[in-house]
Design a protein that fits this description.
This protein is an alpha/beta fold and 240 residues long. It has helices at residues 10-16, 21-30, 79-84, 107-115, 130-136, 191-213, 226-239, and strands at 42-43, 51-62, 91-95, 120-123, 140-142, 154-159, 163-165, 168-170, 175-179, 182-186.
């Protein structure tokens, strides 16, 4: 169903693991993309690693009594079938419409995702079976937990189609980076230019932080004026 999943190059994964979502959000802002941070997608527990991968999208709509039943879990279009289509390294991004009283995934589904090598789960909804999900080791970003099953409030309808998650448009194979600040989306078409700009911004902000720690005042330093940029460039030439 939907778009064919694509792999993300290992070199890009390595680079993005060293870049914060805050930096990425700023880089994307400079490129005119303001709406890239998925609202409500918070780390399920502290200390989760930064995760990078291409988006594998899942879409829920409001529950309809003839469709949202326990029997639907065995249907050809189901969360179970979608999980079997997830490639290793992807990030499952689920549009749950912000519903917080129906858990879209529990411990069994998360265990299967972990076994398939899925890198993480991001949703604007909630999960259930908290203790079991935590035991799987699958990194999850969501709005919290709820005991009721997904069909009490949602109907699963599709995977690998464009969705909205936390107010952000997510297309299959866009790149998602998630850390303690939440989930940021990088449109696939912007990937290469964002990598270059983000690496440079991380380097520059690291140098600025060293100046602040040395006692330098902020005006003219952050953001840098012409004199500061010249000093930074002189330093950067020694480390590039």
């Amino acid at each position: 169903m939907g778009a064919e999943p694509l792999a993300l190059e290992p070199d890009l994964i390595r680079v993005f693991r060293g870049i914060t979502t805050a930096t990425l959000a700023t880089v994307l802002l400079k490129k005119g993309l303001r709406n890239v941070w998925m609202r409500g997608a918070r780390p399920l527990q502290p200390g989760q690693p930064r995760v990078v991968g291409r988006a594998f999208t899942l879409r829920f709509v409001p529950a309809r009594e003839d469709l949202a039943t326990p029997a639907s879990w065995g249907a050809p279009i189901s969360t179970r079938a979608a999980i079997e289509a997830m490639p290793a390294g992807c990030i499952a991004v689920a549009d749950a419409m912000g519903v917080v009283d129906a858990g879209i995934f529990g411990d069994i589904l998360c265990t299967r995702m972990k076994k398939r090598g899925v890198a993480g789960l991001v949703t604007d909804g909630v999960i259930r079976d908290l203790a079991g999900v935590l035991a799987t080791g699958l990194p999850v970003w969501c709005q919290g937990t709820a005991a009721p099953a997904s069909v009490t409030g949602l109907t699963f309808v599709a995977w690998q189609e464009p969705i909205g998650c936390g107010g952000v448009a997510v297309f299959p194979n866009d790149v998602v980076v998630v850390d303690s600040d939440g989930a940021v989306l990088i449109p696939a078409a912007f990937l290469n230019e964002v990598v270059a700009a983000a690496v440079e911004q991380e380097r520059q902000e690291g140098w600025i932080m060293s100046q602040v720690e040395a006692g330098a005042p902020l005006p003219g330093l952050y953001p840098p004026n012409e004199e500061t940029r010249a000093r930074y460039e002189a330093w950067a030439r020694t480390v590039r």
